[in-house]
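Why HPP family protein? Reviewers of the renewal asked for a concrete example.
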Amino acid sequence: MGLREALYPTTSEQINLRDDLSAGTNVTLHFLLLGGLAWASGQPFLFPSLGPSAYLLATGDNPRAEGAYHVIGGHAVAAICGLVAYLLLADGLIVVDAFEQGERFSTEVARLVLSGVVAMVLTTVAMLWTNTNHPAACATTLIVALGLMSTILDAVIIVIAVALLVWFHGVIVDRVQDIYGVEPNDPR
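Here is what the prediction returned.
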């Protein structure tokens, strides 16, 4: 593709405002629920890897990465693998604190890096073995393995938040899409 083609897309490549706004509306609904739950409970029901999961749910069909089995299963696998790696290799450390020290070749950063690497390997293999392919869950395993949400309670909250996201999408967001005709026509 040349520069001219990139700057002047064909009709099929142009923005579909209706689809894009409906996807944005869908994501807003997802995060109003989870953000409200986080606010009301004081618990981390809103965390970074939910963003890609909500995006996949809101923008259309991708059978290898979307759907309850893949989304919930992928995040559950990731939380468990991240927790195992963290508890074995970096228990008690938090990546933000370790990097704040700015110490080169620190033992703490090495342990966290190793925890992240092991968590990613375990998560990748486990998702393939269980057919719970959900790329966004790779962010979850790093969140856990790097000490940001690294307790058993945090892992449970992760799985509950993801299950609520999927449930809310299937029960509420799908109905809103049907009633108001805002389901994206062009899954991307």
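The mean pLDDT is 86. This is the kind of structural detail the renewal will allow us to pursue systematically.
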